[in-house]
Every structure is written in C-alpha cells, then in structure tokens.
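Researcher: Here's a chain I'd like modeled. Treat it as a single chain, no partners, no ligands.
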Amino acid sequence: MTVDLVVKHATVVTPDGKVPDAGIAIDDGTIVSLGRSGQLPDAERTIDANGSVVVPGVIDTHIHNREPGLEYKGDWESATRAAAAGGVTTVVGMPNTDPVIDRPEALELKFERGEAAAHVDFQSYAVVTSENVDRIPALDAAGALGFKIFLGSTVGDVPAPTDGEILDAMTAIRETGKRLGFHEENGEIIDHYERQYRAAGKNRPIDHAHSRPVLAEREAVERMITFASDRDVPIHMFHVSSGDAADAVARGKERGVDVTAETAPHYLWFTESVLEEKGNVARVQPPIRSTDQHERLWEQFSAGVIDCIATDHAPHTDEEKLVDDPFGDTWAAISGFVGLETQVPAMLTFVDEGRLELEEWVYHHSTRPAQVWGMYPQKGSLRIGTDADLTIVDTDEAWTLEDRHALHSKNTVTPFEGESFVGRAHTTIVRGQVVYEDGRVTGEPGDGTRVDVD
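Model: Modeled as a single isolated chain. Structure tokens:
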C-alpha cells in the first residue's frame, strides 16, 4: 500500500504522552496509520521530521478575521495565511463584522467567503443581540459553531441583550446542544468609568486598562454562571484576563455548571507594565492586568481551570493603533492586535521555561478547544480516520520577532514585536495538505474548508 504522505522520525505528542521516533501515514486527507517510523507504509511524499515534535493541529477558536465588511483590516485570506504560518490548522471567526453575523444570510456569506479564500479550515460563531433571539434555531441550522454575546462595549459596538433576553437566549441555545460564549465585562461598569476617566483627562494607555476594572470581568462571569445554572446551558468565557475571573470560573465548575474558559498568550506573557513600555500597541479588551492578577491567572491555568488557549487575533491599521504616537490619547486608539503567529512560540517558550509540559500545551491548544466546541475527534486528535491536521514544531529554536512586518497578516501591530522565544512551528498540514513549510505559505486560498458540526 502506498499512501499520499508520511511524516516520520518525529516525537509525536498528544495529551496522553510522547512517542519518540514515530510517524503518521496520511491518505485522502485522513490519518490511516500511526506507529514507529520503520513500520509506516510507503508514500508518494515523505517528510523527515528529523526529531521535531508533531502534534495534533493547533486550533484557534477566537480570531477576528474581519470579513465581511472590514477587509481593510484583514480578511479570511490574510487571517488564514497567518494561521498557516503560525502552525494553526483550524480557526473560528468572531461575529462582530459588517454586517454582524446575526442571521443565517450573514453566516452563509461568511462561510462562502471562507470557502473561497481560506488557507486552513474554519468556522464561525453567530452573535446574539436583543434583535435576534428568535433566529437562534435558524442560525443553528445554518451551521454556526456556537453563539456569542458581547456583555460590554468592544470593537464593533454590538449591543448587549438585557438579562431577560439573555435568559431567553440560553433557553433557545440549550435546545441546539451548542455552547454560548461571552465577552464577559459588565457594560454598565466599564462605560461608567470610561466617562469618568475621559472627564478627568485621564488619557494614558494605562488609564484605558484601569477604566475596565477586574470587578467588571468577575461580575460578568459570576452572573452568567448563575444564569447558566438556572437554564442548564453550556457556556464559555472568552479571553479570561484576570485571576479574579478565573477564580469565578473555578467556583462555577465546582458547582457543577458546564462552564469552560479560555485565556490568551498575551495575558500569560505580559503584565500591565507593557502599557507603560509599548503604549496603545498593547491596548486590548479586557486589558492586560496587574502582576498579582497575572500570577493568579497562571495559578488557575496550571490547575486546569482554564480549558483553552486562543488569541483574540484582532488586526487593525497602524493609524488605528496610533503606532506613530503610541502614548497618545488612548481614547483615540482602538483595542486589539494580531496573535496568530506568536501564540505557538509563546506557549512553547512557557514549555521551555518549565511552566507547563508539552502534553499540557497540546491539550489546551488543540484537543480541549476541539472538545469544547464540538469538533472532536475530527479535529484535535491523532486518531485513525480523523482529519490529518498536524503541526510540526521545533521546540529548541531560539529567535526574536525583530520586525512585525515579517508577519503574514494584512496588518501586523503586536506587542510581541521585540520579544524573544524558544520554539516555533515550521510545518503546517491541513487534511494531509502541506500549507506551510520552510518559511513559506505553500497552500492556496480556498484550500481550507468549513468544519461541519452537528
């Protein structure tokens, strides 16, 4: 038997452990064999990993690809080109586009654009607002991976539903069997403090962070857990930034609520001092927190309270980020930055530092995201018969992101410019097709496809 592709002489890592001098055989886009390198079948093409680490394809379930409507910032092609270059095999787009993804027609348009342009596999959330609770069954039928509510003001100004409407939405979403995620900041609190800070002339980047206090995040987490407990619906907390919010998630889990959570590499890497060092480049919502909150977030991450790693990849132009005046009036700047190509290096650096094991990284960055969002085992595993999505990484390469313009996103502002890493992805394989290797994106727009979910 001759298969399409064999990857051999690798250390294969899954959440269950490491297997040295092993490999994977792929045929017709799926995994057909796993084993020792010498036991694999012949192949049309063989990749000798030379001892590199092979893991189930990295999944980023939180990106802003900006299409439709905001393509000047980014689009499916540029976002998934960056994903491929970063070792990411599946991405999930957020719904705060133009139009917002609040009806089946908008979701279908987002999917159509993705099918035409994506380099890696993809999915999308649908948003829930005061105007579309009755459309939840139709959005489910149209193939949304899950649902999202913005509880506080953020890019796109998607209004939050009332608490009563959230409860109604939870009832409807429970019937779909899918998960409801939140941008979990109490809108009334953060809007109140922003008005106060503006009126007082507090306009430094650190002032933006302090205007969105940890209390607003913790309260939103606790309130949604209380609601979910009553409605028996699975929920998810996006971009948990603080120890307080992670503690609230832990309490929800202890109560038996089906609540999952993610954090982002920038919350694990930086403390709020980065806002004094790099200014509005590091402005993000929720903000990067104090050293105490940062360390307590790490404690809960290490304890397994945080399920997933995702980036909140959010491209904006240099002008929108005030790159030429990074310490200028923060209220004139916009929040968010790119992250698709720095997440794997950041997490591998934590592995190198001994803050987590390779198996734990794979769990949080591939297996668990697929489980949380209903894509497992087709994604996030290395089982025979599943999609042949592989990320091959060099865990020893030391390097520095010296010039952000080398990144593959349409816009490239990131606080990770100038940061040094140990480890990076060097080959990305999506359903058996090599889409990135030797520093080049080798796939074509449209190679990616929508991930089907029940």
